Automatic annotation (TrEMBL):
Keyword Lyase in annotation: yes
Family stated for the protein in its record: Belongs to the Orn/Lys/Arg decarboxylase class-II family.
Keyword Lyase part of the UniProt annotation: yes
Protein name per Swiss-Prot or TrEMBL: Diaminopimelate decarboxylase LysA
């Protein structure tokens, strides 16, 4: 059973100030979870979680994570700007990008961020761009092949565009060292949304062995190992959630078996989780506004794929609770749709739900990561607000809804901007 973190009554109060649709984030949930992450890795002195900003790029949520010790994993200029704006700099920022534009390297360097090179050719590119090789630097590893766990879950690093081959990696460290680098990191992201406690420990085992080999062969001092993201969440009600404490213990065992005997017990463990940090603590709240009976039964809601793209893009499952009907029988089968002129704009297909009446509020679960952030503006639809349900029960708007004025803002290079402004004013938009 998946339980919403708000009641129907709470949502009825919230909509008096903020109309649906909106994203709602649960401060208590995300704080407790972040503390549990730090507790699970407290055995490692240098542990740091660099929250993957792309998952939920909101400065208020980032500030909460920062207050709990998190840094930020960025991969673009605007993510770096957000991190800078909330006071992160230097080793609080990990710049794990790929296909990186020169100006972004320059900006990351200006902030003193730790730069994580995605490719061998970026050694020269970085040096040409910033005029040096930083003292602290990291490289992203791609072992190729498939990454398989005992439960059959696998992912396919050999097919992914990221990282360097093993040979390139060894060569890269030697070159970086000769150019003045002193502290080295290793980064790898080999499987996504893993709902098993095995992923990080297995990845850690591989990276720790690699680190020992690297340090021996190249003489480079391995300062940190970055397990990156990929720790998943149970989107479906029948899935069992990861146990972060068990994951931390699994990584510790590998650390003690592999790194400690090699005299590398001072290596810091870093993570760059996005989904695990925020996914379950955000929901898209939307209202049923139409019902349609043709060859199937449809419920039309006031949100659409512009607000949450994952189901349309990946066919992702997001659990839906009809607020106030938590205990009613699931005796109806609906497609829950948005209003885009795209037939994949469906939050659920053939979903068993209680009978939905117009005006019911639907709580779309587990949208706190890669939800709002993936939004776009197809069909000229506007993105909704983000709200924070605070620990004291109050609600704070942490991003306003987009307006038509925002949507038209980039026509300010045209004369028609005046006409649009005139229309906006007469429509009081
Ligand atoms: C997307 C991404 C993450 C976060 O991934 P999650 O699956 O949300 O944990 C971390 N690091 C890098 C480099 C990424 O691209």
């Amino acid at each position: 059973m998946k339980k919403p973190f708000v009641t129907k009554q709470q949502v009825e109060d919230i909509v008096k100030d903020f109309p649906t649709p909106f994203y709602l984030y649960d401060e208590k949930g995300l704080v407790d979870n972040a503390k549990a992450v730090y507790d699970a890795f407290s055995w490692n002195k240098g542990f740091k979680e660099y929250f993957a900003v792309k998952a939920t790029p909101n400065p208020v949520l980032m500030e909460i994570l920062k207050s709990l010790g998190c840094g930020f994993d960025c991969s673009s200029e605007t993510e770096l700007m957000l991190s800078q704006a909330i006071g992160a700099s230097g080793a609080d920022i990990m710049f794990s990008s790929n296909d990186t534009p020169a100006r972004e390297y320059a900006y990351a360097d200006k902030l003193g961020a730790i730069i994580n090179l995605d490719d061998f050719t970026h050694i020269d590119f970085l040096e040409e761009t910033i005029g040096k090789i930083p003292e602290t630097i990291s490289c992203r590893y791609n072992p190729g092949g498939v990454f398989q766990m005992s439960n059959g879950i696998m992912d396919n690093p050999g097919d992914s565009k990221y990282g360097m081959t093993k040979d390139q990696l060894f060569e890269a460290y030697k070159i970086l060292r000769s150019k003045g680098a002193r502290n080295f990191g290793i980064h790898a992201f080999l499987a996504s949304n893993t709902v098993t406690n095995e992923y990080y420990p297995q990845l850690a085992g591989q990276l720790f062995e690699l680190a020992v080999e690297l340090q021996k062969e190249t003489g480079c001092k391995i300062a940190f190992i970055n397990l990156s993201g990929g720790v998943g969440i149970p989107y479906r009600p029948d899935q069992e959630a990861n146990d972060i404490k068990a994951i931390g213990e699994g990584v510790r065992r590998q650390f003690e078996n592999i790194l400690v005997p090699a005299g590398m017990g001072d290596v810091s463990i870093f993570t760059e989780m996005g989904r695990f940090m925020m996914g379950p603590y955000g929901a898209l709240v939307t209202k049923a506004i139409h019902e349609k009976h043709i060859y199937k039964e449809y419920i039309g809601v006031d949100a659409c794929a512009v607000n949450l793209m994952r189901p349309a893009m990946y066919g992702s499952y997001h659990h839906i609770t009809v607020l106030g009907k938590e205990n009613e029988p699931l005796d109806h089968v609906y497609d829950v749709t948005g209003s885009l002129c795209e037939n994949n704009d469906k939050f659920a297909i053939d979903r068993q739900l209680p009978e939905i009446e117009m005006g019911d509020y639907l709580f779309i679960h587990d949208t706190g990561a890669h939800g709002y952030a993936m939004g776009y503006n197809y069909n000229g639809k506007l993105k909704c607000a983000e709200l924070l349900l605070k620990e004291d029960g109050s609600v704070q708007m942490i991003r306003r809804a987009e307006t038509a004025r925002d949507y038209f803002a980039t026509f300010d290079c045209l004369e028609i901007a005046d006409k649009l402004n005139h229309i906006l004013e007469s429509e009081r938009n």
